């Protein structure tokens, strides 16, 4: 036996260590005695259970087990999986907001019209063909934009057709939406529920004052109160999951407690899950906003502090560092197929609407540009990733950034130990030996 190269050991202040394995995603607490045996790989008769657990968690693996090869084979196998079809559909590229940091080219995108009936029919045919040829079992649709709710009639029409395909070919259908939430009323929420949309990703960029400087209507007024109202409406539905994305900058960090106070006072604490992302400055973002956090290491430390604050205040988190089999769905042929209102296909939602980046059209299928995503790109071409202890958790990071020669390690690299300690603290709520 040998130790896995994907073990991360974190000493605890009082007794023993935490060990995390990236291949299996297991997190174990070992006593000092157990840790000594683990270190020396020396176990006695009485340690059968310990050895079994260490094997199950892949903390110890057979001498001849090639872990990198295992990850590569798993990656190739999942990439070839055609039983799941994942679509990201933008019924419109228009948006009713004028957020200062938006990465989309608003001047250009606001001229787009809604997806017309011809494109909708071509899209339904495109989906039906893939479902039939590949024996697809799961169809997942994420509604995206612009603001997808500006295209609600398109969402209704397409969902009805997709559900019919699901019934005819015995395919499980599910829907989600990335929305700014400003258009959600009780009536629209009811319609979305009937359309089987069960997950919503909604952005709140800090407390009211901080958010309302950035996520604004085109006339400059703030959206915070409207969004809180929308979250309350959605959260009254059983089985609906609401994920709040907070784009972090220095001002968000400064006023974070105020946001938590509001969410708590509004009774939303147990109805949402929060996650963080670094507020990025893109080509079309405002350059006058002075609160971007440029350094990823600084960001990752701040992110930990924010998660700790959530735990302290009893909010729900989705933070476990599960192993990934792929960096994202874009490298799978039938994963992350993004469709713009004119029917062009893309493999990354950041490219939706930029026709020169398209990888085909719903009327004709994929073109040769799709090859760079599903054939040419592989994280295993990068020496640093091949030798990296976080490879099974990160899988090389964002493929788009890598292909644009802007490859960046995930923020977690700068704070994995603290992150795992925090995860353990969350799982065991209130453990005192941290
Ligand atoms: S991108 Fe960075 S963190 Fe991710 S696997 Fe590669 S070297 Fe590791
Ligand atoms: S931005 Fe990167 S990680 Fe996200 S979908 Fe595009 S390629 Fe994948």
Automatic annotation (TrEMBL):
Its cofactor is [4Fe-4S] cluster. SUPFAM superfamilies: Radical SAM enzymes. Residues 79-320 form the Radical SAM core domain. Signal peptide: none annotated. PROSITE patterns: 4FE4S_FER_2 (PS51379), RADICAL_SAM (PS51918). Gene3D superfamilies: Aldolase class I. It comes from the Archaea. The keyword Protein biosynthesis does not apply. InterPro entries: 4Fe4S-binding_SPASM_dom (IPR023885), 4Fe4S_Fe-S-bd (IPR017896), Aldolase_TIM (IPR013785), Elp3/MiaA/NifB-like_rSAM (IPR006638), rSAM (IPR007197), rSAM_sf (IPR058240), Sulphatase_maturase_rSAM (IPR023867). GO terms for molecular function: 4 iron, 4 sulfur cluster binding; metal ion binding; oxidoreductase activity. This is Radical SAM protein. The lineage of its organism: Archaea, Methanobacteriati, Methanobacteriota, Thermococci, Thermococcales.
